[in-house]
Design the sequence.
């Protein structure tokens, strides 16, 4: 049987495993739900994923998964450090935040994981 998924990919995480439930399209990977009408709209929103592939949003709390040296300083952000109220930005370092004991910083999303609030 030659079956091809003709449903659109998830606009939040780009997963191809979407399915239809009534009038909604649902992504089983990230849980995003949208209508068929919204599937045709083009979104300019960039999706930022953590080290585990979980989508991040402004205001999320994340945990650092690796010791990170602070450039231009002898300080180190230790593994397990929780960072609250992140802000997503464009660029290589796609998270702006304030780290307790260090101050304002830019982090790469590949070095953090989302923490359940």
Sequence:
């Amino acid at each position: 049987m030659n079956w091809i998924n003709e449903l659109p990919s998830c606009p939040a995480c780009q997963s191809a495993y979407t399915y239809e439930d009534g009038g909604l399209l649902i992504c089983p990977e990230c849980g995003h739900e949208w209508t068929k009408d919204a599937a045709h709209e083009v979104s300019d929103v960039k999706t930022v994923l953590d080290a585990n592939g979980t989508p991040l949003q402004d205001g999320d709390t994340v945990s650092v998964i690796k010791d990170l040296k602070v450039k231009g300083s002898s300080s180190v952000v230790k593994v397990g450090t929780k960072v609250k109220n992140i802000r997503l930005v464009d660029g290589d370092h796609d998270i702006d935040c304030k780290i307790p004991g260090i101050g304002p910083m830019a982090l790469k999303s590949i070095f953090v994981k989302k923490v359940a609030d």
